[in-house]
Design goal:
By secondary structure, this protein is an alpha+beta fold. The protein contains five helices and nine strands; from the N terminus they run βββααβαβαββββα. About 20% of the residues lie in helices and about 20% in strands.
């Protein structure tokens, strides 16, 4: 299925990331802890927008990033999954076993963008469907957007590539194509 975001985004690489404050599954039992951009000051942050809970590609992405969560933490990065579903739908999905299409044992919170404003701000909202495209945004410890990739609904994203990009950004140097940690950066 092909989809297009129809809103002008305010999330521009090199600029401050759009602020947010969303209900989340940080406290899965009480659902009373929001996630805010300011909570992640001093850390790298991956915002992982996805279309809907209880779908086919989404759990493969979210569980892949969860399975690599320690690797993200090891480089000073946190992750938040974001969709336009309610926090109650998120909780039900997190409580559903992986072999039943759920994302049980997810290591990071899911945020509920029920107003759809955050998806609009990041330029990933499909207005006529009320869901987000697959958007991945990396925000640096100072709150600047440093990387973004947005694509259609039918293709999942790579945790490995996201880790590589954050590590490349952390070098502060010029990193050639296919750069990997341990490789030299380009001398300009």
């Amino acid at each position: 299925m092909q989809a297009t975001a129809t809103v002008r985004e305010t999330a521009m690489v090199g600029q401050p990331a759009p602020d947010f404050d969303m209900a989340s599954t940080k406290n899965l039992e009480k659902l009373n802890e929001n996630v805010k951009l300011s909570d992640y000051a001093g850390k790298w942050l991956v915002l992982l927008f996805y279309p809907l809970d209880f779908t086919f590609v989404c759990p493969t992405e979210l569980t892949t990033f969860s399975d690599r969560y320690e690797d993200f933490q090891g480089i000073g990065a946190e992750i938040i999954g974001v969709s336009t579903d309610s926090v109650y739908s998120h909780r039900a999905w997190v409580n559903t076993p992986r072999d039943k299409g759920g994302v049980a044992d997810l290591q990071y919170p899911l945020a509920a963008d029920v107003t759809k404003q955050v998806a609009r701000d990041y330029g990933v909202l499909i207005e006529d469907k009320g869901v987000a495209l697959r958007g991945l945004f990396v925000i640096d410890p100072e709150g600047a957007l440093r990387y973004k990739v947005v694509h259609d609904l039918n293709v999942g994203r790579s945790a490995e590539e996201t880790l590589r990009v954050i590590q490349a950004l952390q070098t502060g140097g010029l990193c050639q194509a296919e750069w990997k940690p341990g490789h030299e950066t380009i001398n300009a």
